[in-house]
Amino acid sequence: MADTAAYYSVSTLAVKPENQAKVVEFFTKVAEATEKAEQAAQIYRWYKVEGKDEFVWIEKFASEKDYRAHQQSSHVQGLYKEYLQYITEPFVFFPVDTSEDQLVGGFERA
Predict the structure, then answer these.
(1) Which residue, among 52, 53, 72, has the nearest Cα to 61 in the 3D structure?
(2) Positive or negative, the Cα torsion across 10, 59, 80, 72?
(3) Model pLDDT for residues 60-94, shown as the tens digit of each residue
(4) C-alpha distances in angstroms, 47 versus 4, 13, 50, 64, 93?
(5) Which of 4, 15, 48, 85 holds its CA 20 to 30 A away from the CA of 55?
(6) Do 77 and 83 touch, CB atoms closer than 8 A?
(7) For residue 106, is it within any domain?
(8) Residue whose C-alpha is closest to residue 13's, from 50, 48, 60
């Protein structure tokens, strides 16, 4: 995928049941910092998986380079150690190649 193409990432995070509210609070801080500091962040959403102690993140950045910069940003790295206490396993990342030659199906409305 070309570095100038939009970059999508889907990730999951298993959370200790007693820490779900803390995780929402924590990642709300991360989202606010990302929205404020990173214009290249186009989508930054997370959802609670029904019936599981798990969240799913959907992120879109202007490029893979911008996404990697996000991962290394001070607001992400600075909070990294804090969130480790709330989880049961590390993030599982699923980078998505959205180039036309990798399209399997579906549609997008303009």
Answers:
(1) 72
(2) positive
(3) 999 999 999 998 988 888 777 777 788 877 788 87
(4) 27, 10, 9, 22, 15
(5) 4
(6) no
(7) no
(8) 48
